[in-house]
Amino acid sequence: MRVSTTQFYMQSYSAIQNNQNAVLDLQDKIASGKRVNKPSDDPTVTTQINLLNKTISNLDQYKKNGQFASSQLAVEETQLNSVVNVMQRARELTIQMGNGTYSPSDRQATSKEIGQLVDQMKSLLNSKNSQGELMFAGNSVDKPAAFVADNNPATANGNKYYGYIGSATAGASQDPQANYGSRFLQISFDSDNKLNANDKGDYSRVRITDNGTIFDLPSGSVQTTFPPGVDPNMLNLLVKLKDTLDSGQAPAASIATDLDAGIKKMSRALAEIGGRQNRIDAQRTAGDSFSIALKQRLSNLQDMDMVKGITDLTTKQNSLQIAQQVFAKVQGMSLFDYIK
């Protein structure tokens, strides 16, 4: 068979180029440790790799959301524990001042401490998180305060009651949004990727704030008589106690009863926060297990078998060397060289 000079050069060039490309490709894969560096390396698994990377990235973000939510709930738990401590101290003083052995001046002196408790309670109810958002104001997290002085005039002893900004008693500060919603964070996948009005039944999201109604005294069982237009909340219960002591009067037993009911309500709120934190832990554990399985699947699809890769590289390097040597040997041959 006659092989033309052009054909010989083309075949030799093609052999050398193919082997060079194969060597470079294998060097890239060995350097990256991945069998698939671009879609053309394996089009059939590229789509699977992209989906796995997206899912793993979402799981990482959900884990970060869970860590943030857990820290926010820890802050809320601390604030509610402080509310319980304030209520317990107020209850102790209420029972103590209800004793007939104390004089009006003793009660007026005790009202000074109750005044400090009122200020502390107001500060706790207006707590803000690390982002400067109110923790107990529903959707109205950017308002100056969740509890403000209400529309009612000060008492004869100069005490002011407070209204939640979701209530009409807050006057110009009223914001109906404070009665709805809260801050939610997604901590796992869900079926519709939609946020419902509350997180009950939606295991993918966790609530990290509440609204001020959690500080209302238990509805239907309030025994203390408040002035007309005053919200029956725990803060106003302390104001009522202070006003009574300022007058030198013994606090009614109903105040101690309502303080006790408020403490029990706060205990239930703390238990509910603990439930949310447990849910975050459970989702984090499930997410970690799922992520490990996905990463194993991703590794099987895209990682390079280093032993096989190095063997293939050696083979291709030898092929390239042989092709180059053959080309160098044959290109100098001519009929005259053969005659000699």
Q: Which SSEs are present, and which pair or pack?
A:
Layout: H1 5-32, H2 43-97, H3 104-125, E1 147-149, E2 162-164, E3 184-186, E4 205-207, H4 234-246, H5 253-302, H6 306-330, H7 335-339
Largest sheet: 2 strands, antiparallel
The amount of beta strand, in percent, is under 5%
End-to-end span in angstroms?
22 Å
Helix amount: 55-70%
**Stretches with pLDDT under 50, minimum 5 residues:** none
Q: What's the overall average pLDDT, rounded? A: 88
Radius of gyration: 38 Å
Spatially, the strands of the biggest sheet line up as 1-2
Shape: rod-shaped
Order of helices and strands: HHHEEEEHHHH
The count of DSSP E runs of length 2 or more, i.e. the number of strands, is 4
Structural class of the helices, strands and pairings?
mainly alpha
Number of helices: 7
What would you note in describing this structure?
With 340 residues, the protein is mainly alpha-helical. The protein is 58% helix and 4% strand. It has helices spanning 5-32, 43-97, 104-125, 234-246, 253-302, 306-330, 335-339, and strands spanning 147-149, 162-164, 184-186, 205-207. The protein has a two-stranded antiparallel sheet. The longest helix is centred in the first third of the chain and has 55 residues, at 43-97. It is rod-shaped. The two termini are 22 Å apart.
Keywords summarizing the entry:
rod-shaped; 4% strand; 7 helices; single chain; 340 residues; mainly alpha; 4 strands; two-stranded antiparallel ribbon
